[in-house]
Structure formats: structure tokens, C-alpha cells
Amino acid sequence: MSLEPLIGVAFFYLIGFIVKIISDNRLRKQLIEKGMVDENLKYLYQTKSNYRTSLKWGMVLVGIGVAFMIGQFLPHDLQNGVMISGAFILAGLALLVFYIIERNIDKTDTP
How far apart are CA 16 and CA 44, in angstroms? Predict the structure, then answer.
């Protein structure tokens, strides 16, 4: 059995799924702008950026990248174990540092 037709069908299905998500999101935004939606749902589609989420995932990805970069300088027999465990350790460390940063930001924001 050939794999090419299956890949083609999956590709077109993925394109259709992406188009559906984009059109649904546009429709929801229009409903919110016209006031035809409950007030409790408006916060889900706000356009302001959430810098804290970007900071968190940026720190996690940098930690994982640093772990893989350090792993490249190790001997071949240690590479896999150190890279994987280092990625988990540095990603966890990044989340802990983010928690401390967010807690300090929350302390300064509250009166």
C-alpha cells in the first residue's frame, strides 16, 4: 500500500481544519463586537497581548535549547541522557524563575 494518497488526504484535511478555525474565530469576534454574546465570554477573545505567557514559554524554550546545546559538547556515550535530563531540569528551573518573577510583578501591581 502506498503512503502518498494518505499524505495528500491528510494535507487537504489539515488545510480545511485551519480554514474552519480561522473563520470560526472571525465570526466569534464579529459577534462580540456587535454585542450579541454574553459578557462572560468576552474575556476569551480580547485582543491585548499576554506578555506573561510569552515570557514563560520563551524562558522554557531557551532552557531546553541551552540543555541541547550543552549536550552537544559531551562525549557521545553521555549525550542522550544528559540532553534529555538537562532539558527537563532547565525547563523546570525556567518555570520556577518565571513563578518568582510573576509573584514579584503581582506584588508591585496590587495596591
Answer: 24
